[in-house]
Amino acid sequence: MATIAFIGLGNMGSGMARNLLKAGHQVNAFDLNAQAVAALEVDGVVAAESAAHAVKGADAVVTMLPAGQHVKTVYLEPDGVLAHCRPEAILMDCSTIDVDSAREVIAAAAQKNILMVDAPVSGGVAAAAAGSLTFMVGGTAEAFDAARPYLDVMGANIIHAGDAGAGQAAKICNNMMLAIQMISVAEGFVLAEKLGLDAQKLFDISSKASGQCWSLTSYCPVPGPVPTSPANNDYKPGFAAAMMLKDLRLSQSAAKNSGAQTPLGALAEQLYSQYTEAGNANTDFSGIINMLRKG
Ligand code: NAD
Asked: Among 30, 96, 121, 204, which has the highest number of CB atoms less than 10 A from its own CB?
């Protein structure tokens, strides 16, 4: 069994770390929030006093942090991961961050001959807890092979997307599609309401017709048709609107820098910005239907 340093034990990281423990690994954990680590000590994590302390002697390092600046701090600062990990360790950043930061950190690791992948995830807190995440992995084939046994413990689908940063590119493209599709499904239900068409009937028809998509059949934004969707739980996340807005901002920044035309992605960013500014940052992203309904 391996010794794994886990940094960032928030909503996602805590479930992922528990699965590594369950698989029999030793997990040395660090989070700026000491309570987040303490909550996992009962499960068997070993609390570390710093990132540097956590990675000393570890075979693998997993990070699950909010954004690019946190990842750069944790890896690149003098008291960070790269300065203190073993050269043989495999480094996996599973946070959703911008492609440029991911490439910068992986290049810094490569300069020290340390293998690293960007491995953002799809699936929410429930999938993190169940070990059924999808990992989109960027990095060399050698780094992917070294990361795979650890990712297998935390996920159900592990896909090598390409070179460094390709995992993040896949993640932001996927979530831009998801946001646009969620808005499209929500608009369909709002129009159906105005036309006097029953929501369940629209679901029964569109889930078998060409309007079918994950936002409709797995995450329906109206209560009823899909019992597990957050619409049945007062739009509690699930996947918070603030997180969706963060991913849309990453996609729009990438679109601008690369010259890609993404007009619906830009509109989705505006709508989610409006939705979160109206006090809904911590509600599920499918709750945008309530804003669209009001007009
Ligand atoms: P979170 O805010 O619950 O957890 C992040 C943790 O990182 C916090 O506990 C925080 O204290 C810690 N942290 C921040 N800076 C640190 C530092 N310098 N050193 C050590 N610890 C530090 O966030 P989350 O929901 O777990 O999301 C983590 C990442 O996963 C994000 O990039 C998010 O976009 C992505 N993601 C989240 C979901 C979801 O449904 N929540 C789904 C897919 C992807």
From this structure: 96
